[in-house]
């Protein structure tokens, strides 16, 4: 079988694993359904962190957050860290990133400068002259904002200006308003026309990158990085009205769950929970607040969230059509996934936070591999997005650097092997020490431990797939708890990288 020449990675941001039409009749995603029909949908894919920067850094380094150093949002990924793009570029590949990066924080300080911070991100003259190289990507076109956030500019701002919208900032919130204590985030229908939306921009510029590489006759590694359905819940028409809130079915909290929840999660069901003792760094913790939400509001947000997914799917359809038009479908591996999940009422939670239920750490994952024997199937083979760099290199017969910590999924994607890993690990160090947890997932069981706490979580995913009953203190699961601990220790040893081979006795 000839090796593919090109690798196209398409990602969303904060997408619940179930928001695929092939899984969920409530949502329409014809492009992703097509991709799944022509490839394989993997229903047990996990992220190495439930927030953006750590997972995105893992996607390009093949390392877990504790190793690559960007351990939470607001922490910079060092530009000197080797990336998969560096490796591809050394082997003659064009490497491009279009869309959201989020490798750097929204602020700059001595020792942690950031190109993704204001005022730099608003300096269109700077971005007109800077398209890479950056983190192993020879060519970048990036944008930082979600919906109408004030963090708008970079290459997306240039595109809007050049497309005939020089006053584009009138559609976005000012920095002063966004951080005002009186600010109320608009939700629902956004008056920004869809032709100027960043979802349209990402689709259009992804196609342009492929056209450029095909014209140049170069194989490519291209990351098409969509921003949605990350909140705010705001999207242009017709997507804002595509779904009826009355048809939505949010997740629920089983009252019996509260008796078994760890304290941090149980507190989210209070009106005014006090998490101040966990605000160690001076910055807040995502999700550490009351999650009590009116059912009507939750349904409205869910309808908008679904609309954001369908809008993205529409642009993905344009990308897939372009692959066909360019005649490169037989030469291109296409992978779709997300950087972390999202809560839509499951366990009484909304959005995200340091909670490691499946809704937050499990993501959609589809692979279309030319010539694969398992096209049109689904699989429960465990996937981790930390495996992506190693697998991409293996697909292209490029040696894998020793510092990468994942495993190659090539034979699994080809249908030649049932699985490549029997576990996944998710790290979450959201404060230096106060909010620091880690989760270990096997084919059947799932365990979460909390630094400095006696509490923990243990779920039997076969008997309790919705994670309603925490078995941490259940004497009937004492032997299971010990067995999972032992497997976890072995997994920690297995994932240690070996950057250099031993070449001498001393």
Short account of what is shown:
With 506 residues, this protein is of the alpha/beta class. Helices cover 27% and strands 16% of the residues. The protein is built from 14 helices and 19 strands.
How would you describe this protein?
This protein is an alpha/beta fold. The chain has one domain (6-494): 3-Layer(aba) Sandwich (Alkaline Phosphatase, subunit A). It has helices spanning 30-38, 52-61, 65-68, 84-90, 124-129, 154-162, 175-178, 198-216, 263-266, 295-326, 358-361, 388-395, 410-413, 478-494; strands at residues 6-12, 40-42, 45-46, 94-99, 139-142, 188-190, 220-225, 234-236, 332-338, 343-344, 350-351, 362-363, 365-368, 377-379, 383-384, 423-429, 436-442, 445-450, 456-460. It has an 8-stranded mixed sheet, sandwiched between helices. Strand 16 (423-429) and strand 17 form a beta hairpin. Helix 1 (30-38) crosses helix 10 (295-326) and helix 8 (198-216) runs parallel beside helix 10. The protein is globular and about 65 Å long. The two termini are 43 Å apart. The model has no long low-confidence stretch (mean pLDDT 96).
